[in-house]
Amino acid sequence: MHPTHAPNTPSDLTAKLHRSQSAPQLTPDGKLCHFLSVEGLNKDILTQIIHKAGGYLLPNGQIQNSTELDGCTVMNLFFENSTRTRTTFEVAEKRLGANVLNLDIAKSSTSKGESLADTLWNLQAMTADMFVVRHYSSGAMHFMAQKVCPSVAVINAGDGQHAHPTQAMLDMLTIHREAKKPFDELKVAIIGDVKHSRVARSDICALQTLGVKDLRVVAPKTLLPKGIERYGVSVFNDMDKGIAGVDVLIGLRIQNERIGSPLLPSTAEYFKMYGITDKRLKLADKDAIVMHPGPMNRGVEIASDVADGEQSVILKQVNNGIAVRMAVMAMAMEGQRSLRN
Ligand code: NCD
Questions:
Q1: Is the domain defined by 19-164+320-340 classed in CATH 3.40.50.1370?
Q2: What pTM value is reported for the model?
Q3: Do domains 19-164+320-340 and 166-313 have the same CATH topology?
Q4: Over the stretch 219-228, which tens digit does the pLDDT of each residue have?
Q5: Does 95 show up as a binding residue in the annotation?
Q6: CA dist 231 to 192, 210, 282, Å?
Q7: Cα(231) to centroid of ligand 1, in Å?
Q8: Binding residues for carbamoyl phosphate, per the UniProt record (predicted)?
């Protein structure tokens, strides 16, 4: 059981978060019909996602097209900036044969004060089959999943500090393909701004569900959420000790946009203490892989020679993101179809 995360912004969504945590993402017979968070999904479903995504990846690194979303309309609603996630979702939707519509939030009626539910209902009336949503409020996706018509799927592309489940699953696919050991034998270190990171929260949950026992978070105290020990991870404030012998290093960006007051003396000081450098990487297992969800701040959380080095799988993560997003959307649509019948 993973603890509920505190929402980041006081809003009407906050109060609804707790009761909407149970917004069902599974059909009564256990099929995915929304993809809201990794929490609540068992090892079987996560493994199904990994295998289905792996099936789209061709040996030459290309991605296999499919017709699983033929005739479906997918609307991308990004209330927050995004490069990788938004683009790879759109590529994935097109590769599945969907009709794709990108709502320009800045030019939409949301900026005139329309509520999220009203925006949603209007878009639904334009025959949407699936919403892919990124929102600055934690819990927004659970709220939306409760508001949409029964046959419409909601896919979480990142909500506040709460969850980023497709990022977690592309990370799991990357680890499955690139690390040299099965999940239950891996030592994994998540390094950096865990406190403000939805990626860290979803990664921790996915890694534990898939059987990782040695899971570490490495950060200064100011970048760790209170009560992090409750998640069943080992906490390290000393980087060299934290990454000793690990098989996977996941670097995180300092989420300056979510930090009100300065939590760090300086970025140069941070890099000295917590930067993933070539010298430090030697403390990890010799086959260790280096991951980062992007956007990367070179010279802050990671040195350029590591980011571009042989142990880096950062660009593979991006490519795997297309396959994982295809898998999740195809599975959720299939689940919705089974509910209609
Ligand atoms: C992450 C996000 O937006 O949460 N990036 C991503 O989706 N590729 C991490 C970040 O912004 O640092």
A1: yes
A2: 0.91
A3: yes
A4: 999 999 999 9
A5: no
A6: 16, 15, 28
A7: 21
A8: 84-85, 134, 164, 167, 294-295
